[in-house]
């Protein structure tokens, strides 16, 4: 990703990790803390495919007792927030592997 000071950007998504703000095509996207950390992880590793277990470790922490299917719930919430309107889905589901940030370009 491009690091512009404290900004993370990918495609038309901009994140200010310090100010805890996300924009897509200039529009502010409100995210909960877990969805924010999930998107931040994807923005730091665009194109990488992460299994549910790796996302649990990265976003929830190594000592987490959270079930792996919880990742699916938060991915769904993140998609709903960032894909409002006719925006393309940039979170790709990789069958039997996990999820990746991928604009399809």
Helix and strand arrangement:
Layout: E1 2-4, E2 7-10, E3 13-16, E4 21-24, E5 27-28, H1 33-44, H2 52-60, H3 70-82, E6 91-94, E7 98-101
Antiparallel strand pairs: 1-2, 2-3, 3-4, 4-5, 6-7
CATH arch. level architecture: Orthogonal Bundle
CATH topology: Arc Repressor Mutant, subunit A
The overall strand count is 7
Beta-strand percentage? 15-25%
Summing up helix and strand content along with how strands pair, one would put the structural category as alpha+beta
Strand arrangement, largest sheet?
A: 1-2-3-4-5
Mean pLDDT: 89
What is the share of helical residues? Answer: 25-40%
Uncertain stretches: none
- Largest beta sheet, briefly? 5 strands, antiparallel
Just give the CATH class: Mainly Alpha
N to C succession of SSEs: EEEEEHHHEE
Distance between the termini: 15 Å
| Mass-distribution shape | globular
Radius of gyration: 13 Å
Tally of helical runs: 3
Number of domains: 1
By CATH's scheme, which homologous superfamily applies? Winged helix-like DNA-binding domain superfamily/Winged helix DNA-binding domain
């Amino acid at each position: 990703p491009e690091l512009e000071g404290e900004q993370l950007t990918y495609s038309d998504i901009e994140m200010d990790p310090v100010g805890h703000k996300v924009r897509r095509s200039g529009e502010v996207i409100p995210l909960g803390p877990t969805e924010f950390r999930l998107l931040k992880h994807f923005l730091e590793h665009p194109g990488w495919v992460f299994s549910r277990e790796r996302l649990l470790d990265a976003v929830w922490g190594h000592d987490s007792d959270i079930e792996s299917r919880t990742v699916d719930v938060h991915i769904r919430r993140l998609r709903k927030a960032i894909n409002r309107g006719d925006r393309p889905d940039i979170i790709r589901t990789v069958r039997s592997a996990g999820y990746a940030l991928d604009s399809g370009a």
